[in-house]
Amino acid sequence: MKAASILALIGCLSTVTEPKIYTRCKLAKIFARAGLDNYQGFSLGNWICMAYYESHYNTTAQTVLEDGSTDYGIFQINSYTWCRLAKLQEKNHCHVACSALLTDDLTDAIICAKKIVKETEGMNYWQGWKEHCEGRELSEWKKGCEVS
Q1: pLDDT at residue 131 tops 90
Q2: In the predicted structure, residue 10 carries a pLDDT above the cut 60
Q3: What angle (nearest 5°) sits at the alpha carbon of residue 45, between those of residues 117 and 25?
Q4: Which of helix, strand or coil describes residue 39?
Q5: How far apart are CA 127 and CA 132, in angstroms?
Q6: Nearest partner of 34 among 113, 128, 146, 130, judged by Cα
Q7: Mean pLDDT for the chain overall
Q8: pLDDT tens, 60-71?
Q9: Which residues are the active-site residues?
Q10: Is the N or the C terminus of the chain less surrounded, counting Cβ atoms within 10 Å?
Q11: 3-state class of 65 per DSSP?
């Protein structure tokens, strides 16, 4: 009985992050409201395309890289430079916990992505964007989404 109570308590205390996979149009609306359309010269189509190829619109996506760092969230933002793990790090240019990039509230992820685009070489940070979106006609990504 005591063991069952302890297990129930542990179950209540542990937090489980449920994956949130956005639709293309829902993400287009969120991105447009957040001011990503034409941010630093990149159209909304660029952002939607990049998010698709980086995470398939999955807010809980995580990719462990060969160097031991991890890419987090819908934009696959790297832990080595941009976000903070549990331990103290020198970097963390976005001043955000990596876990904050895994929620369905995209505010921190969008703020960090804007910082990356502004402070680096635009969207070249994202390999998925470079391989699948750069230099292409991207208006189809927002087609039918009721965003201008």
Answers
A1: yes
A2: no
A3: 115
A4: strand
A5: 8
A6: 113
A7: 88
A8: 999 999 999 999
A9: 54, 71
A10: N
A11: coil
